[in-house]
UniProtKB/TrEMBL annotation, chain A:
PANTHER family, sorted: DNA REPLICATION COMPLEX GINS PROTEIN PSF3
Record keywords, A-Z: DNA replication, Nucleus
Residue span, DNA replication complex GINS protein PSF3 N-terminal domain: 21-69
Family: Belongs to the GINS3/PSF3 family.
Primary localization: nucleus
Gene3D superfamilies registered for this protein in UniProt: 1.20.58.2050
Domain of life of the source: Eukaryota
Cited Pfam families: PSF3_N, Sld5
GO annotation, biological process: mitotic DNA replication initiation
Organism: Maylandia zebra (zebra mbuna)
UniProt protein name: DNA replication complex GINS protein PSF3
Record text on subunit structure and interactions: Component of the GINS complex.
Domain GINS subunit as annotated: residue spans: 86-182
Keyword Cell membrane: no
TrEMBL record, chain B:
Family membership noted in the UniProt record: Belongs to the GINS2/PSF2 family.
Function statement: Required for correct functioning of the GINS complex, a complex that plays an essential role in the initiation of DNA replication, and progression of DNA replication forks. GINS complex is a core component of CDC45-MCM-GINS (CMG) helicase, the molecular machine that unwinds template DNA during replication, and around which the replisome is built.
PANTHER family referenced in this protein's UniProt entry, alphabetically: DNA REPLICATION COMPLEX GINS PROTEIN PSF2 (PTHR12772)
Record protein name field: DNA replication complex GINS protein PSF2
Keywords assigned by UniProt, alphabetized: DNA replication, Nucleus
Domain DNA replication complex GINS protein PSF2 N-terminal positions: 3-61
GO cellular component: CMG complex; GINS complex
Length: 208, 175
């Protein structure tokens, strides 16, 4: 049986993040280019390029930016990273399948959804592009996850975003479960992977 | 759900056997199993049939649909139709595997039957993937799932539900 004993908290896709999800924690470390709108007095020790005057450009991680962002009191204003700007959006609309999403930042969908918090005027287009890219790439992911049994899929998987990788894995597990059942391996008892690591002596090794 | 669990559910189906022992009526929780007389055919659940076969106490008669001509017709019909055709039995894949593994000596042309059933399965799975793809790419709200068996649904369930979840959340970004 394939039941897991450890259920990791999945990332919250969309505008909410799951507090306990490791993927979301790693996602919030991505750096965003921002422009400061007011001074940060005496905070120059935090980062070498920190300004004392407003209107300087620098890069802050997402978690800090989300905390500092406020619509009314303009502390920081966020620029869109390259991948979500007009140029790349047309590339995605043309043919999403050729793009190497892992290189564009391994959390393309996650970061894109978080960017929608920052009230940029291009928000509807960004959301639409995210959705369309996802739908277009879905076909490839489904085909390769459901058909590649016992094959080396690393060349395909490395071009996938983290979200798509999780989908790929669940597709593979469905396929592997069915194939192992068909071969009759499902009813064979095998040592659990957790126990194998203990390296206990087996009875066949002890007996002379 | 595991493939093994679906197989467990499949073992409740009835199949005809010819016992070589005699036994009075047995009263089980699930129902009564009629008196066994040697040489007279009787309907029993698959789990009992397999157990008796392994102890060499019966002979299993293949179900009516497990016949080369009928399966060939079904395979050709499946290939012609776009939608899913009615299945020979809601558990055809599991029954084929169980009966052919344990009782292939009682079933004529076992290998051909195995190949035909695999062909039918492959065609249906391909249709299922096509319809899942069109379901997602056109963002439809519901899909009709006539004549799908539990095993087929089981292989695609985890993947499809995760994808639909992601799509739903990405769509809620639009608001």
């Amino acid at each position: 049986m394939d039941t897991q004993s450890y259920f990791p908290v999945p990332p919250g896709v969309g505008m909410e993040e799951n507090f306990l999800s490791l993927d979301d924690i790693l996602l919030s470390h991505e750096r965003l280019p921002i422009r400061t709108e007011c001074t940060f007095p005496r905070l120059g020790f935090l980062e070498k390029s920190i300004p004392e005057s407003p209107g300087t450009k620098m890069e802050l991680p997402l978690w800090l930016t989300k905390g500092l962002y406020e619509r009314k009191r303009k502390v920081v204003s966020v620029e869109l990273p390259k991948v979500y700007k007009e140029g790349w959006r047309t590339v995605f609309n043309a043919d999403p399948n050729v793009v190497d999403l892992h290189k564009m930042g391994p959390y393309y969908y996650g970061l894109g959804s978080q960017m929608l918090h920052f009230d940029s005027p291009e928000n509807p287009e960004i959301a639409q592009t995210l959705l369309q890219t996802f739908i277009a790439r879905f076909r490839r992911t489904m085909d390769s996850s459901q058909n590649a049994y016992n094959e080396d899929t690393s060349a395909f998987v490395e071009r996938l975003d983290c979200l798509e990788k999780a989908l790929f894995r669940s597709g593979q597990s469905g396929l592997n479960g069915f194939q192992s059942w068909e071969k009759g391996q499902a009813s064979q008892l095998t040592a659990s992977s957790l126990v194998l690591n203990y390296r206990k002596r087996k009875i066949t090794d002890v007996q002379p | 759900m595991d493939a093994s669990e679906v197989e467990f559910l499949a073992e409740k189906e009835m199949v005809k056997i010819i016992p070589n022992f005699s036994l009075d009526k047995v009263f089980l929780i699930g129902g009564d199993l009629g008196p066994f007389n040697p040489g007279l055919p009787i309907d029993v659940p698959v789990w009992l049939a397999l157990n008796l076969k392994q102890r060499q106490k019966c002979r299993i008669i293949p179900p009516e649909w497990m016949d080369v001509e009928k399966l060939e017709e079904m395979r050709d019909l499946e290939r012609k139709e776009d939608m899913f055709t009615p299945v020979p039995s809601p558990y055809y894949m599991e029954l084929t595997k169980l009966l052919l593994n344990h009782a292939s000596d009682n079933i004529p042309k076992a290998d051909e039957i195995r190949t035909l059933v695999k062909d039918i399965w492959d065609t249906r799975i391909a249709k299922l993937r096509l319809s899942a793809d069109s379901f997602i790419s056109q963002q439809e709200a519901y899909a009709k799932l006539d004549n799908l068996t539990l095993m087929e649904i089981n292989t695609i369930r985890a993947f499809l539900l995760d994808t639909l979840n992601c799509m739903y959340k990405l769509r809620s970004n639009l608001q």
